[in-house]
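Troubleshooting entry. Yesterday's outputs looked truncated, so today I'm pasting the complete records for two proteins to confirm everything comes through intact. If either block looks cut off, that's the bug. Protein one:
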Amino acid sequence: MKRVLTTALIASFLATTASYAHESCAHGKTLTPDVLTIATGNPAYFPWVIDNDPTTGEGFEAAVAYEVAKRMGFEKDAVEWTTATFDQSIQPGSKEFDLNLQQFSITEEREKVVDFSEPYYSAAMAVLVRQPTVDAGATGEMESLKSLKWGVMGTSTALKVVSEVIAPSDTPLLYDDNVNVIEAMKANQIDAAIFDLPTALYLSAVVLEDGALIGQFPADRSENPDQFGFLMEEGSALKSCVDEALAAMKSDGTLAAIESQWLAETTGVPVLK
């Protein structure tokens, strides 16, 4: 009995110690004491956030955020959500959030002015068009893609993919955000655009009445896959805490399970040739 009790006490001690280690990592490092402020976009799209409400924890990024927060010592009621535009967030200077996740690709240029966590997702890139473009003969063959009129968010990593990998005949049109890219497609100003695969699936199924995906560039077939990370103010003391939480989630399979739950539909799109 004494031995069983001792074993139970040791297990309890180890669990408490692990919890304390996470809490002590983030203690005193947040904007608001004992509160973790997380930003996302407005709107935040499926499947990253369900129904534009990250507080439910539903959607891939919302679920990842709460799991990271928990492993840093913040229960759900200690997480406060806010919104910030994509362009505002990647600018240098102080931030009004502790962490921000809205499919920020980790790039060397951005890392000069902000901090990123280790990646929480490696994204395939998908080509989005409208059905009339497919009916007119557009396919996933590279020569066909080159002939299309492209629109790209100027600050996104999609610009490099379009310009260097596809290299279309006409210079891509640049827009300040993805909302305007979609509006340009609706207005027949452009034929095609590139988004991360889950976002492209949502846009084709929900936002565009006649959206279609004609192919993807898989992350695992790229020398430099588009990887998403939590964005933080440059020099953030929370970076090591977030990286530690993500490493543990990868090690114990939690991150893969969340990805499977919320991004399982990102299949069935043909590979671009």
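Protein two, checking that the full record survives here as well:
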Amino acid sequence: MSIATTNPATGQVLKTFDPMPDEQVEAALGRAVDGFQALRRTSFGQRAQWMRAAAELLDAECESVARVMTTEMGKTLAAARAEVGKCAVGCRFYAEHAERFLADEPGDAAAVASIRAYTRYQPLGPVLAVMPWNFPLWQVIRFAAPALMAGNVGLLKHASNVPQTALFLDELFRRAGFPGGSFQTLLIGSDAVERVLTDRRVRAATLTGSEAAGRAVARVAGRELKKTVLELGGSDPFVVMPSADLALAADVATTARCQNNGQSCIAAKRFIVHTDVYDDFARAFVDRMSALRVGDPMADDTDVGPLATAQGRTAVEDQVRDAVDKGATVLCGGRRPKGEGWFYPPTVVADLTPEMRMWSEEVFGPVAGLYRVSSYDEAIEVANGTNFGLGSNAWTREPEEQERFAADLDAGSVFINGMTTSYPELPFGGVKNSGYGRELSAHGIREFCNVKTVWVGKGAPSAGAGAHNE
């Protein structure tokens, strides 16, 4: 893929960029090492000051940054503004909490025959971040804010269709005051990732993206014995039980499926509804999905903009067509509108069966699959019957069912009577083919730290010395 800004609302290429030559990549790696040596020696207080300055820049430039994101990948301008605001919140969260999250943790000195024993969290060094286009600012910030506050430095390989967003991030932290080399964008293609990842100066990697991309990075990192965190695809279940508030569930289901034009890993995608309330929920859900306005993402009254790429729309069309050809029923949408741009309408598909691609694949667009089940056990079977395990939703007002869903849904998060969302305060990540490791919260900032044991002895042999040597 060429590195270019292409407006998905029109298909027009607005700006192209040449990939970095090898010598520029080499220079960036050198700056990353120097930046790490400078940043790791600064105090948490100093880093927090710089991180708050980054948040202030995001607030001050919200409108211009949002317009760049909307132009590059098609999210509505309102959603883009909200994303910039969320990034500022994330920066301030880690500015406030990083020192506490990474404070030394005392151990039981007496039990290990020492004067002092404790765990210390120390940064690893340069970390390569391979990031996607769908939340082009937030998915980078949720790595960068904790990484920089821990004393690591970042090298960003962003998706090739959001280069201007990537270049904004390249400058953001420098403008905020972080030492040179603390965070750099590498305008390179996916074919150059392995070379960067195998460089001895790069200590770890994080990737948000497709399962195939995650496997490729994990394969190289495993060979090189480098730490990785992977946040991959999701086909999140949204389970509706008889006791649910159906009107609220239908409202949230519509938002959850069509947020970011349906292009979110943690968007609800499979709507699993108990037969006792299936018809009522389906009617309400279809009404709300049909009422969404598809159009210019810059317009204030637009609910759903275009998909980010022509290839992405074709993939969604192929999945819906496969389901229909095999007997599924389209309750609304299902046909691309006429005209320019990569638009696809909010769509609900019912009567899905296991031989259809939609049953097992992630659909990355505003298309909902509707499933009828007759019991709690069947709902869990369908919900967990996928290779993915990122987020999940359950709708029930029965306390016992709420506890059962929390225990039984096989996912990195379970949201009950509310939409799956990433919060700085909560860990975020998945299981199964949705990846491993966690972002956000205290768990996220510790992922790229050396968890170092420190033992301070008395300077003389103890009675039990050597008894438990490995």
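Both blocks look complete. Sanity check on protein two: Residues 77-101 form the longest helix (25 residues).
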